[in-house]
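Practice problem: predict the structure.
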Amino acid sequence: MQTYETVTAALTGLKAKGYTLDFNIAFDNIKCEEHNICLNPNEFEITEVFRFEGDTNPSDEDVVYAVESKDNQVKGTITSAYGMYADSVSDTMLKKLTIKHHE
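Answer:
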């Protein structure tokens, strides 16, 4: 798997691989507001995960997820801070994001 030094580099690299949509976590699903797309956890797979840890500043901690719909029609990314800056998510979404992260 490719490695990246920064969040920006990861997003650029994934965009070049076709992960062009920008998703946000919305408690129990992911949404791309720009294209009016909403996927629940059983409609997408996480294909790659990149974790970035800030050396001195906790606000620099971030995770980049590459996601793809199970019907292969939609590919995009999610960026999410972790730890004390993490978004509020449902238990189902948390399991989905955590399972792939620890593989």
